[in-house]
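Tokens as discussed.
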């Protein structure tokens, strides 16, 4: 059994289980469907419809059509949703909300889902949520989650806004975040678009795809592929507690491998979410100071990894610059890659440092 007071244990406790992922997927579909209807610009509505339909297809394949794998309480809703084309799924989706959302009775678990919904950013570049539709959807959804308290949505909004402002005050070229991100965070409404990349393409890119293939694969994974394979949905940036993958192992010769699987954008997004989760879920809902301390310790380990990478990259860049007169075209390209990776690592490190300094457990 995993010790809940270790970093791995904390990360496991912050993950969404299969049932919670079902509820999250349904509520994400509510937000998508309502936003498509609220959109008044035909060209934008068309782009949003494509995203909604791809997400719906992925959700059907990963969840709703797999009746034998669904818990009893989700089978009727799943069958009703799977029986309809994406353009006709709104009614069965909305009808399923009261019953499925009612399953999330613990405040800490309801907060995790609300945080994921608040940070849900499925749209491509140049497309944004309808502000009023998004807010109304979040208010309605919060009312259906019995574990939440009346002020929880406002608290989530305030915490996200505060940490993003703190991160943005760092003297970093944050414009690089969107280009380098692996997942998006839906904070463009209140934070001037700190990180709003296309989540589908980003997830697909993380597994080696690009373009339309990346979008399709990314949305498929988002729609439940990991659950179908027996895995767990991850919430609140919990993966930051257990490792940064190839962040310290991506060699200079690995073209395009900047923070492989853990781009600057992903570290920023997950650190921001983990800040909110630690404050509202770990400290407020659970009152677990020891768990919060483990979160800070985990982030410090990640910051140490990033700092090591920054130092190594800086050394490589200095050596290349010292030999600038003899640079070949290949070495010039290598230097550009190293400088880009160095920038990404600095962005990731800055976000981690901000969150560590903000969390009360750091004191």
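Sequence:
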């Amino acid at each position: 059994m995993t010790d809940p007071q270790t970093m791995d244990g904390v990360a496991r406790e912050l993950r969404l289980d299969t049932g919670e992922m079902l509820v999250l997927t349904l509520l994400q579909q509510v937000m998508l469907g309502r936003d498509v209807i609220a959109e008044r610009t035909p060209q934008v509505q068309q782009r949003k419809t494509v995203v909604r339909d791809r997400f719906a297809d992925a959700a059907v394949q990963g969840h709703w059509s797999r009746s034998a794998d669904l818990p009893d309480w989700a089978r009727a809703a799943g069958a009703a949703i799977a029986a309809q084309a994406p353009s006709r799924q709104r009614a069965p989706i909305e009808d399923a909300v009261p019953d499925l959302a009612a399953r999330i009775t613990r405040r800490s678990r309801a907060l995790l889902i609300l945080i994921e919904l608040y940070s849900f950013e499925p749209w491509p570049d140049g497309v944004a949520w309808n502000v009023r539709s998004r807010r109304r959807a979040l208010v309605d959804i919060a009312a259906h989650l019995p574990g939440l308290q009346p002020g929880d949505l406002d608290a989530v909004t305030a915490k996200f806004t505060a940490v993003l402002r703190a991160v943005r005050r760092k003297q970093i070229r944050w414009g690089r975040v969107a280009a380098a991100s692996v997942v998006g965070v839906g904070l463009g409404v209140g934070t001037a678009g700190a990180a709003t990349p296309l989540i589908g393409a980003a997830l697909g890119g993380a597994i080696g795809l690009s373009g339309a293939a990346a979008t399709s694969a990314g949305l498929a994974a988002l729609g439940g592929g990991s659950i179908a394979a027996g895995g767990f949905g991850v919430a609140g940036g919990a993966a930051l507690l257990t490792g940064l993958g190839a962040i310290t192992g991506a060699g200079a010769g690995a073209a395009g491998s900047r923070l492989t699987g853990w781009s600057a954008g992903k570290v920023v997004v997950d650190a921001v979410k983990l800040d909110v989760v630690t404050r509202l879920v770990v400290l407020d809902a659970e009152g677990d100071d020891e768990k919060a301390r483990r979160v800070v310790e985990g982030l410090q380990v990640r910051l140490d990894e990033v700092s090591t990478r920054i130092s190594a990259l800086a050394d490589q860049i200095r050596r290349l610059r010292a030999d600038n007169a003899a640079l070949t075209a290949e070495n010039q390209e290598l230097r550009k890659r190293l400088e880009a990776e160095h920038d990404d690592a600095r962005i990731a490190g800055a976000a981690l440092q901000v969150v560590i300094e903000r969390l009360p457990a750091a004191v």
